[in-house]
Amino acid sequence: MANPLYDGLFGIHAGKTTPFLRLLDGQVITHQDFLATSAQIANVTAQIGLKPGDRVAAQVEKSPEALALYAACAQAGLVFLPLNTAYTVDELSYFIENSGASLIVCDGKSEEKLGEVAKGLGAQIETLNADGTGTLMAQAQAMPVSFATVDRKGDDLAAFLYTSGTTGRSKGAMLTQNNLLSNAQTLVKEWRFAADDVLLHALPIFHTHGLFVATNVTLAAGSSMIFMPKFDLDQVIEGMPEATTMMGVPTFYTRLLGDARFTRDLAAHMRLFVSGSAPLLAETHVQFEERTGHRILERYGMTETNMNTSNPFDGERRAGTVGFPLPGVELKITNPDNGETLPDGEVGQIEVRGPNVFKGYWQMPEKTAAELREDGFFITGDLGKIDEDGYVHIVGRNKDLIISGGYNIYPKEIEMVLDDQPGVLESAVIGVPHPDFGETVLGVIVPENGASPDTDAMMVSVRQSLARFKHPRELVVLDELPRNTMGKVQKNILREQYQGMFVS
Ligand code: MCA
Ligand code: AMP
């Protein structure tokens, strides 16, 4: 028996004294040290009574110990549920309740509020602070540095990641051990990762990009990463000469280009820059090459599927495209009305199938059935085409989604809060271009007859319910929303009307 994820990403490094995490204070954590910490945490989970298959919800700052918690869950056969540090207690309560998490790990600052949630739901709670202190590590330090890895099958669940939906209710995407392992191994090969690579890691570790792409690839390659708490331009510029690779959302690259210290010399030691999570403007691609001589490698993925396509490592990295389906991944463009495959060159919905595709949404069989076909193809909700050379282009979205700085925001969630406010008849939330975040959130409010809604008070409610990155940058008041003859709100008209609001 075995545990494919733990064995394939972590166990393979047992006894290795080579660096895994390089911290900003100069501290280096070897693979061996990291595994010792994760085994100690796994021992804590067993001691407090967690059983394989139990869910562990973690809303913690980025730290080596937070990463070790992920490894510990893999080793103990627990399902890891990382949560954005920006989520409010309202949002967290839903995730914790919906997932039936047995353990909540949170920052000491949130213990009081989340403690109440935990109590109400019968979950245990432990704390883990940004500096590695807290009740979890206090117990872990007294534990043995080895743990008998729990047997798991490739099809067993390894992680849940919540993704919002067009109906406003978040869905727990169930990812298996094989989903995560197979994708990491494919990317190591495709992007030529080797043990001597040093990845500049400035992404958060609660989403696919920072955790399952950047971290898992580093682990699968046995390489190391400069582990930064967040994207800080000064730190990234300072760390780059020590790195060989970087992964980021387009905002990382536009921010770098906006700084005169980011030069060809600074990037001379780098061999690869990868971009994803949001569209990289062709203009950014071109400017980046002019400045550094590097062509950014753009790839395309989703929470439900990990990575689907990538531009080639060797060969032309074509600006404005997301490259080719990864080995083992099938991709087709279909007619949204009947699901039939369309000829190359025609725009339709993107569907994917492969070992990377998730198992379904936790306890939501109807939603799973609506998006994951019986034959294994997943309907991504993205619109695209395949060009004559086989490159995949994403041309739009068949889902009402805003991507701001790489974070996904579903308008429905915000509209539900706005619609509840006094004096509001209805609302429409749209994404409009933004120079730093790519897109930003704009709320359009229609008042009830005779009412003059207080937009400041509305923002107070929004702040209480929703994470900061989802807050509308502005609320505008209109007499009515544009609608088509079927009565459907025409968000495209609103997007056109306000497209210049935040760009000069
Ligand atoms: C921070 N803020 C944001 C965002 N980030 N608002 C909108 N969109 C955002 N993405 C808030 C802050 O809380 C702050 O609020 C204010 O905006 C300005 O913050 P700033 O200092 O400029 O932001 P930052 O802290 O520097 O963060 C920007 C960032 C960060 C570095 C771009 O958002 C980031 O690391 N994004 C990466 C997201 C990511 O990993 N996505 C991958 C998802 P205040 O002023 O009130 O304090 S996985 C995925 O999409 C798929 C699978 C894939 O293909 O990868
Ligand atoms: P998430 O739900 O956070 O997993 O985000 C997945 C969505 O991000 C996809 O469905 C796409 O709409 C978008 N996305 C990811 N990578 C790219 C990319 N390279 N270009 C355009 N959109 C992307």
Attribute tags:
binds adenosine monophosphate; 25 strands; 30% helix; binds methylmalonyl-coenzyme A; 504 residues; globular; GMP Synthetase, Chain A, domain 3; Rossmann fold; 4-stranded parallel beta sheet; 9-stranded mixed beta sheet
Could you please describe the fold and organization of this structure?
The structure is a single chain. The strands form 6 sheets. A 9-stranded mixed sheet has the order 2-1-10-9-11-12-13-14-15. The chain has a 4-stranded parallel sheet with strand order 4-3-5-6, with helices on both faces. It has a 4-stranded antiparallel sheet with strand order 16-17-19-20, with no helix packed on it. The mean pLDDT is 96. It contains 15 helices and 25 strands. With 504 residues, it is an alpha/beta fold. Among the domains are: 1-152, Rossmann fold (3-Layer(aba) Sandwich); 402-498, ANL, C-terminal domain (GMP Synthetase, Chain A, domain 3). It has helices at residues 4-10, 31-47, 64-76, 89-99, 111-121, 135-140, 177-190, 208-221, 233-239, 250-257, 282-292, 365-371, 411-419, 455-465, 491-497; strands at residues 19-22, 28-30, 55-59, 79-82, 103-106, 124-127, 157-163, 171-176, 198-201, 224-227, 245-248, 272-275, 297-302, 306-310, 324-325, 330-334, 348-353, 360-361, 378-386, 392-397, 402-404, 407-409, 424-434, 438-447, 474-477. 48% of the residues are buried. The longest helix has 17 residues, at 31-47. It binds methylmalonyl-coenzyme A (MCA) and adenosine monophosphate (AMP).
